Amino acid sequence: MRRDAEEKRLRILAAARHAFAEKGEDVAVARIARRAGVSVATVYRRFPTRDRLIADAYADQWNDCTAMHAAALRDPDPARALRELTPTLCAYQLRDRGFTRAYVDAVVAGRGLDHERLETERVVARLLEKAHAVGSVRADLTVADFRLLVAAHHGVILAAGPDAAAHSRRYLALVLRLLQA
For residues 28 and 15, is the Cβ–Cβ distance under 8 A? Predict the structure, then answer.
């Protein structure tokens, strides 16, 4: 890719991340284009769909999630893997609220980031299957419960304001107790 084309692409992605953090993923493409200093047509040439723009805007964050998933699947203790994955994900939600909105929309509501959502569900389902087999987590715990956990933590962050980190720690302490068999 030409240098100027790559610079435009990076400006579009930065503008998209900023706009998504401010207004959510439903922000108008025209707003992203204005912030990036390009035309709407340029945005669509580089990113033919909104899902592609969202996924590319959060590619670094998704790569972090993929690494977390891989580490969790390598752990011989699936309950421990779930207990470690949960606070890691929640800490990530605290650091990057724009990505959190996209992730919550994808994982909980089934909107956008289809590949990423399906991958997260696959990992959680596999961990739960292994943990259920050895009786190390609640027998009634499901992937849908994990979705609720993610959505609820997002709600904690939004409601807590400046005390989000403290409320997040308290929420996690309660949730981790609930995961136990």
Answer: no
Cα–Cα separations (whole angstroms), residue 58 to 25, 44, 141: 11, 17, 29
Calculated CA dihedral for residues 71, 77, 78, 84, nearest 10 degrees: -60
Task: Assess contact for 95 and 181: CB atoms under 8 A.
Answer: no
Strand-pair partners of 166: none
Locate CATH 1.10.10.60 in the chain: 3-50
Using one digit for the tens of pLDDT, what is the confidence trace for 15-58? 998 888 777 777 899 999 999 999 999 999 999 988 889 888 88
Task: Place domain 59-179 in its CATH homologous superfamily.
Answer: Tetracycline Repressor, domain 2 (1.10.357.10)
Which tens digits make up the pLDDT trace of 73-113? 999 999 999 988 888 888 878 877 777 777 777 766 666 66
Enumerate the CATH 1.10.357.10 domain ranges in the chain, comma separated: 59-179
Domain 3-50: give its CATH architecture. Answer: Orthogonal Bundle (1.10)
Contacts of 15 (CB under 8 A, 6+ apart): 32, 33, 35, 36
Nearest to 111 by CA among 50, 156, 155: 50
Total-model pTM: 0.74
